[in-house]
Amino acid sequence: MKVKAIVVTVFSLCAAASHAFALSSQEIATFQQGKSFIQSRNVQGYQQSLKALKGTTVAPYLEYYYVQQNLKSLPKETVLAFIERTPNTLFNASLSQDFYRYELEQKNYAFIEKSLKQTQSQFLRCIYDDAILKTRPKDFDAARFQSYWVKVATPLSSCLPVEKVWLDQYAPKTVVDQKINELIANLNMGRAKALLPYVPSDKRDYYQSMINVIDNPAGQLMTQKKYYKDSTRFYTLAVQQWGKSDSTNALKGLAFVRKNQLVTASEYTKLRNLLTVFQAGRADAVDPLGRIEAIAKNEQTDDVKISGFKLSAQAGQCKNALDYLERLSPKAKEDATWTYWQGRMHQCLGQQAKANELYQTIASQTSFYGFLAADELKQPYSVLASLVRRKADPVAPLTDANFKLGLDLMAVDERNFAHQAWFQGLRTATQPQKNSASFAAYEKGFYDLGIRAAVAARQPGALHIRYPMGYGKDVKQSAKRYGYPPELLWGLIRQESLFQPDAKSHANAYGLMQLLIPTAEKMAAKLGEKRGSLYDPVYNIRYGTAYLNDVSGVVGQHWPYILASYNAGPHKVVKWIDPPMADVALWVESIPYRETRGYVKSILENVVIYHYQAGNQKVRISDYLNRFYPQ
Fold first, then answer.
1. Which residue ranges does the record assign to the Transglycosylase SLT domain (predicted)?
2. Per-residue pLDDT for 3 more than 50?
């Protein structure tokens, strides 16, 4: 049975943009009620809601949900008319894709050919091509499809049926050959294997051999029946992959490929350096500094020199450590990290004047090493203090349609669409409008949007927007429970999620403090409660703070250790602190994982900034490197 055609006029985004900022509470409630009517299939109630929202930015989005739900039962002319009336909406592309995919399933080929002949969307172009191949294969534009295919690693889902025909009947073998080569080089092995049937058997055997070697270098690299001396790129890649999991045996593989001339001299040097750094960083490494020093100075890359510095500094060999730093490339020396450590090594050698000169060059930076340099000089964080005192620049009225739409969509809890609109605003709006948007978002409690707009606006004032003290009641309550400073929790939340309560990572970590479900379950059980939603700030902050306390029981109540554990896991940190390192700043810089190293430094930067915002300008970053909690 056909659903009654929509009779309420739909306003496009352009028309709706004239709506005064922002939605009223009644309009917000009407939108939510309209969605409920759609879910319960109350067409009359939905139409009344849509009529009440006429002229608002969110009206097209309510109708979108209705059309999406009834896509298979509405007349196709009605759906098409809606799509054509709303070309600039954030849902238009996905709705169009769903609509034409359904029409393809229904074998409405003539309708598809007529409607999509001029489409600029590649997704829809492939639906059009699919229809053409079903009805008029001689009119299929194979050259156009090929021009698209060579540019992508994996075609869009709508293009896969077209790709199958193209590979079977039209694809030049040389083009497929080149694509497989690229895919293997980019470690896209599954896709490369899928294309092997479309190249000659000799090429197929060759590529399968390379895939085997790279996928399983430990078992395949030194046992192949045939080797290809013109394939140094793939053998280099195999040794690199081996080194990530077993640098000790990868060195044997490196010796093998060198002996058999399967890598060039320059590739060998790069691999040798890479594996040596891996080996030197192992907790069980034998004479790690000796391994680094065995590499000729003229062959040492920056990574080797940095490893040599860390190992020398850990051994108290300040002169040797300084030599490594002074031989860094000009580009590497631009990093304040190495300016600070050059100062520390000069200080270690009794050259205080030179150390102070180096510290002074970075002491005004509001960064981990800028703060540490100021601490060495016993100087105040004057730039940070001035930022806290500085009043924000005058805010112009918010007129940008994307930002206004984003705020309206956030108000009706359409967060996915809201973020799309916001990012569009960040790409296209003027700096003054980004500044205005940051204030508007902050005032509404949309802290993540406020941070993004404030950072993009590059305005020196309004530090409270870039570093919001959001969810203050819950943060302070959880901090008090464990004797933690609330500034620490705010600093961690900013690093983990930018205060986005519905954030979800690729690793399936959720919410403000980016918790894994098993971790949250464990913390809820310890607190004697049933786990609440991790998208709810109340529960997320409670469980996240409980987890901080939990890991402190494993690694000790020392903030750098606790923060590193929150990111990498306490089982890793237990290994990294054995034996303990007296210089905690050097320990932080020596954390083996680049992500965790940056994570700890970023949070401690944030914490200092939050303390200054809270009025405590006596806090030093050194306090957090050497302080234990709770006290």
1. 476-578
2. no
